[in-house]
Write a structure and sequence with these properties.
It is built from 16 helices and no strands. It is mostly helical. The two termini are about 15 Å apart.
Length: about 400
Amino acid sequence: MLDPLRFWAALGVAIFHQMFWSWAWVSIDVPGFERTVAADVLYPSAAPFTWFGWVGVEIFFVISGFVIANSASTSSPGEFLLGRALRIYPAVWVCATATLLVLLLFGSGPASEFILPYIHAMLMVPKGVTGQWLDEVYWTLAAETAFYGLVFCAMLTKKVTLRHLAWGLTIYSAIFNAVALLVASCTTPSDLPYLVILMFRVPCAAFLLSHGCFFALGIWLFISANRELTRLEQVAVAVTCLSGAAEIYFFASFFLTSIPAVSDQSALVPITVWAAAVLLIAIAAKRSRRSAGTASPEAPPYLRTLGLITYPLYLTHNVIGTAIIRALVQAGLDATSAVWIALGLLVLVCWFICAKIEPVVRGALTLTVAYFGKLPERQPKSRRPALAPGLRLPLPVSVKVKVAAS
């Protein structure tokens, strides 16, 4: 369930960037480095169907909350931290290097402009309020790593459980999003773009202010896959859903207010898409709880592959995908055909990255860690020291199968 959902969310973000943001950014004049490799093409007729693809990021965050909760519930702190590093760094190093090469070879900006953002990307260091991302999509990694760090610290305490963490993020993010809506109601349309960029993408992503509710919702859904939620926990789920809807509404309002091509659209569209994805995860979690103790059929290998492709696809579709589109347009293809061919080529390239290149980099990283420091010892589950109640939840076999891509 999670692998295909994650893939379609990534594809939605890719289509948003290629067929909407690639030309709509001129309305607010905040492009990224992709402008240096972009073709001069427009897709205004596709705007009503592509402008809300960014909500795939909010879907990612919910899935991440679920998957990371699963990983934390079956690992020691050392295993968890090493597992996360081995999962995210190889793809970042490969994709960031490929992005840098594309910018150096085909970009119109000076080479020196790309170096510092490249270093930030390789280290996964947030750029702060000022500066430039190597690729705008990397802002989400700041939120992801902040969440990983929070979970790791909770595991170290052996007292802060996943349930505690979910409660904290639920309240913390709900307060921020409620205040943000209040501020938005008092903001003039001309100031809204700058307010959104400051409050919702930089630097708040690294503090999980606006997006903490999505990770919290993922944790609650994971807990619901293991046991029935209490009434108070069900209230928490409702609060995270309302908080998430508020964040999506706020960001959708930014597009509808600032970009004339979609001024007649409704903020309810991305909220509905996100809610449908959350409902699918909730249904899968409920089925997992009901089938606890029974082995579920193993997911087909192609679904696992879709899950693995998702991460490099997300990291490469913007700058590298834009460069491919420009090359295809210059070769004589029409703009629409160029997008779909570029996405198809990217999927093939990303399959090669996740199947052939990432394992080599991951193996080298594992050997390096083993050489310079002791790898965390993986103990039999029955002998692992138990964490505080609620952090190490009993995990049905069916959940293990579905989130294996973590």
